Structure formats: structure tokens, C-alpha cells
Amino acid sequence: MFGIEYFDRRAYLAQSPQLYKQVMVGVFERVFEIGHAYRAEPHDTARHLNEYLSLDMEMGFIEDHHDVMRVLSEVLRHILGTLAQDYAPDLAMLGARLPDLGDVPVVCFTEAQDLLATRYGEEPDQADLSPSQERSLCRWAEAEHGSEWVFVTGYPTAHRPFYTMPDSAHPEQSNSFDLLCRGTELVTGGQRIHEYGQLRSSLRARGYDEAGFEGYLEAFRYGMPPEGGFAIGSERLLARFLGVENVREVTLFPRAVNRLTP
User: Fold this and answer.
1) 66: domain CATH number?
2) pLDDT in tens, 148-187
3) Rounded to whole angstroms, what are the CA distances from 246 to 117, 140, 183, 232?
4) Is residue 258 part of a domain?
5) Strand 30-38 vs strand 51-60: parallel, antiparallel, or unpaired?
6) Which of 58, 153, 164, 252 is most buried, by CB atoms within 10 Å?
7) The pTM is what?
């Protein structure tokens, strides 16, 4: 986190609007935000920025994460349709080919690990997909399903944020997903824990002090609908759509671990 002095107290630049948009679901049911996020992670790669523009959505009254995945697919179809219709000359000038979003294949994390090991010789990772695994999985989706997209669901609960809803049938797996496109993870989302007691238990299980989440927890005390959402990194999305290898090439004044000023 990026620490700052805020009058007489310590504060931090926002890493994500996650906790706030969950609270607002209890008011508006569907919440949308386009805003900056700041992450002091020591990445120096072609796919990471320390300051980026996040496209966030949260929605209430869902059954599970599959409802969120369906809404995400509708959002992306709208984005792609608008780009194709209104920005065709710009895309042609840049030599860009938009990815077709048809029926996106879905694979569970454990199944993906087995597939990657047997087909591509990728070493299993119990926590997440590595960049190499993401590329291999996208190659599989294109070869077997003719899709440049693939949903990966059921990431290990232990390695997802405390607010992520576990699968009721398999608590070690979470009701979460990543959406990959052209070899890179573009979207993360899932179902959130909405019950007050379960949320407190999840915080304690991870060693967090409830006092630091007092305002957040208070919103859940008297009831919150089953809810979930997602976040899209706009720069990564644009880079994949344009076929650009380095995300900094689609960012005005990119800021990364070794770069602050132009």
C-alpha cells in the first residue's frame, strides 16, 4: 500500500473500492465505478502497473458467481460491439483485431492444473495460475473450443480474499473466477460473503483484527443480499484488444515500480 499523511492520521491510497462497493450494494443493489487504484507491489513486468484505471461492478440478489459471469459477458459484448461500430477506423489504423466473445469455455482450477500438467508439462501451483500457465490455458481454449477467452473458476479459498464465498459443497474451493484472454488474466470476480457471522469468522481465521473493519462489518450486521461482482483492469483490456505486448504502451504517463515521472 502507498502510505500518505492525511492531516493528523495515517492513510493509504486506494488499492481497490471493493469494501465500499459491497457496502453500497445494500443501498443500490447494483453499483458501478470507474476509478484509479494504486498498488505498491514490486512488479516490474509488461503486464503490471502500480497505478491503473479499474472498472468495477457489484450486484445483489445473485444465486452464485455464475450470475456475475453472465453479467460480465454481457458487459464485454457491449464494449466489443461499441468499439467495432464506433471505432472501426481507429482499430484499422492500429491493425487491431478484436477478440470474438462467443461461448466462453469454463474450467475449474483443479481441472486446469491437471490439464496443464498432462498437456503442457506445467508444474502445478496450489495457489494461482502463473503467467506461463495462463498462456498455456488460453492456447488450450483456442485449440479445443475456438475461443480466445476462458473462465477459470473454483480458486482455492485459502488464497482468495477474506470476503470470497466458499463453495458450500467444497469449502476448500471458492465461488470465484478469473477471465483470461489472449494469454492474460483480464478480470477477477466472484460471489462475496454476505452474512455477518460468516464474514467475521473469515476475518478471524485469517488473523485480521475486526477493529480495522468496524465500519465495513456494520453494513452487514442487519442483513445484506447475496452479492458478487468483478473488476476489470482497463489498461490490460485495451492492451489485449490492440495486441500490444506491454501495458505501458496503452497508458498515458504510466507509473510502475521504476517509473514515476514521464
Assistant:
1) 3.30.930.10
2) 999 999 999 999 999 999 999 999 999 999 999 999 999 9
3) 28, 23, 13, 17
4) no
5) antiparallel
6) 58
7) 0.95
